[in-house]
Specification:
Blueprint (H helix, E strand, L loop, with lengths): L8 E3 L2 E5 L5 H9 L17 H14 L2 E8 L5 E11 L4 E9 L8 H17 L3 E7 L3 H10 L2 E11 L5 E10 L3 H13 L3
Parallel strand pairs: 5-6
Antiparallel strand pairs: 1-2, 2-3, 3-4, 4-5, 6-8, 7-8
Length: 197
């Protein structure tokens, strides 16, 4: 059974730091970069709600269901977003990666593959996970393409399965990577990261 605890993950030009209230101001700035809270298919907090967002994430961490991080870019030290493990099911060695968002200026750069490399390496090589899941909104084509590019397998769509912040119903598109698939996914990420910066 996996045992998930806060840890700092570093490499490939990013640092994932356990999410704390000290990150709130920088996270608010990151959310302003692109006014990300206006995207209906994400859970990016409005700047004035970032402290509540951090408190709620850490309350879930204490319950054992989530492990949240702030994403910092090493080159300039700037906090550029957030990500987390969620829906942690320790007895079956499963975590999901999600609640991921980056400042608009960091999107489409090395940041996402770097973060996924750190998170997946920690999950499979550090924690000993049997599977890592990912999910995204059925309306978020960009996220679906990014997850598919990782090499994750699309498991299917759970229709009308969650509520968005605006109250509308969301379809969850589900993906997963099994432990035996990790070496191929890792090789693909290594190739991408070798050419990304």
């Amino acid at each position: 059974m996996i045992h998930v605890e806060p840890v700092t993950l570093r490499g490939f030009g990013v640092v994932l730091e356990p999410l704390q209230l000290a990150h709130a101001s920088a996270l608010a700035d990151a959310a302003r970069d692109g006014e990300l809270w206006n995207l209906h298919f994400t859970f990016v907090p409005r700047p004035e709600h970032v402290e509540q967002y951090v408190r709620e994430a850490n309350a879930e961490r204490l319950r054992g269901s989530m492990l949240p991080w702030a994403v910092r870019r090493e080159s300039d030290g700037r906090v550029i977003g957030s990500t987390r493990y969620h829906d942690i099911i320790a007895p079956i060695d499963r975590v999901e990666i999600g609640y991921t968002w980056y400042a608009k200026s960091a999107q489409g750069t090395f940041v996402n593959p770097a973060c996924k490399m750190l998170l997946l390496s920690h999950a499979f090589d550090g924690l000993g996970c049997a599977v890592v899941g990912l999910r995204t909104d059925g309306d978020n084509a960009r996220s679906q393409a990014a997850i598919a590019k990782l090499g994750a397998k699309r498991d299917g769509t759970i229709r009308h399965s969650a509520m968005r912040r605006d109250g509308s119903a969301r379809d969850n598109v589900m993906y997963s990577i099994l432990r035996e698939e990790w070496p191929a996914v890792k090789a693909g990420l290594e190739e991408r990261l070798a050419h990304a910066r």
